[in-house]
Amino acid sequence: MSKRLTVPKTYKLAIGGAFPRSESGRTYEVLSAKGAFLANAAKASRKDGRDAVVAARAAVKGWSGATAYNRGQVLYRVAEILEGRRAQFIEEIVDQEGVSAAVAGAQVDAAVDLWVWYAGWCDKYAQVAGNANPVSGPYFNISVPEPTGVVATIAPQDSALLGLVSVIAPALVTGNTVVVIASEQHPLSAISFAEVLATSDVPGGVVNVLTGSPAEIAPWLASHADVNALDLAGARDLDWVELEIAAADTLKRVLRPGGIEPSLDRITAFTETKTVWHTKSLV
């Protein structure tokens, strides 16, 4: 009996709910921590970045218009599917980062727990971030947080999975859509996670994953007029000040490199406050 050939996985981009190759046709080799070949990953171009922004913009209305309770259900479903594919992600993290299975398992568990934590905030953050304001006169004055829109983010570069979900999840809580540049060195789990999203209830275009060089792609996203906010969590090794300057030309909200621990601050970082006045009944 002849030996069966393996079927290597093809890692592509994730844009608009589909998995296209880079329009440029470029790929790059992803190596293990010991330098062994693992896979070819798509090397996203400027055009791929533009396509991802178009997809994210088209998805804003539907995702932000969903009820907070529904968004929470959808995000919890992502955690369920991620938990079900735990073994696959452990294997990928071991191969990419060169850590033990126990360490990789802890990273996957932390990613699942983080996703559940943020899912729980979907129908609660508005009560904490919003408020009824005291005013002089026969009026109600209420401040309500609303999503910013399209958020472009650079995922932490030293993590295959946990860093990625740490920047995606909080942006989704409030109804934003995301274009994320995955870790250049450890991109495989990012595309596998995009497959998790595609098989959950997350609408196409809500999360778009680009692999390749952050130094090449980030400047175009920072200056893109249809991107509303920029998360520089994984931009420590880039000239992130220049990215911030580019973002300022289109008045983007910018979150500078810093901690990615789960927090309400990461949820509200990409919200705008809408204040509504309403007369009190004189009857």
Automatic annotation (TrEMBL):
One Pfam family matching this protein: Aldedh
Aldehyde dehydrogenase domain span: 24-253
Keyword Phosphoprotein: no
Keyword list, A-Z: Oxidoreductase
EC assignment: 1.2.1.3
SUPFAM superfamilies reported in the protein's UniProt record: ALDH-like
Molecular function GO labels: aldehyde dehydrogenase (NAD+) activity
Statement: the UniProt record of this protein carries the keyword DNA repair: no
Name of this protein: Aldehyde dehydrogenase
Species whose genome carries this gene: Microbacterium esteraromaticum
